Amino acid sequence: QVENFTTAVRNYIEENTIENIHGATYAIDINGGLSFIHRNRISHLTGGGMVGIRLSNCNRTTVVTRNTISNFVSDLGVVGIEADLITGTEISKNFIHTFQAGTNYDQYGIFLHHNSGFTANKVTNNMIRLGIDSAGNNITMDNTITGIQTYFDSTLVAFNSVYIDGSNQLQSAALIITDVEGSGNRATNNILVNRH
Fold first, then answer.
1. Tens digit of each residue's pLDDT (9 = 90 or more) over 34-66
2. 148 alpha carbon, distance to own chain's centre
3. Which of 51, 78, 117, 130 falls between 20 and 30 A from 138, CA-CA?
């Protein structure tokens, strides 16, 4: 966990391998500042609720790109990339796949919390595959599965590929837009497949 990064200097978190961790965890947890989170491999996390990459209070020009987040097995909920209180952040070219959450819990590929006044975020060119295991078999837990959930406030969601499958799911969606504020919002050129 990294907290209170200075806003004057960009911090680099790149090319790390984080795997085989048991228990509730944030694999990468950033609170504040400007960060470049690049080419990290986060996989084979097991146990309690878990998040691959979590951002909070990040300033403009924070970039989360080319990370692979996969093979999480949780007793609780699972999130690939979670962001809260961010402005001008780019989440792009990440590959998120193969999650299993506990019965009646949620799976999210990318989840941006709604906070008024935090604008101009970009979610682009990500690949997300949820609801099936690494061998292509349906995951049969009673989960709610969401590929991308975001709010719109000068937000761009573009060129993402999201595939949702599985059986016995409570509900599922490739893309959820929770609220719309501001202007210049766009969801365009995404490939969204929900076979559930």
1. 899 999 999 999 998 999 999 998 877 899 999
2. 7
3. 51
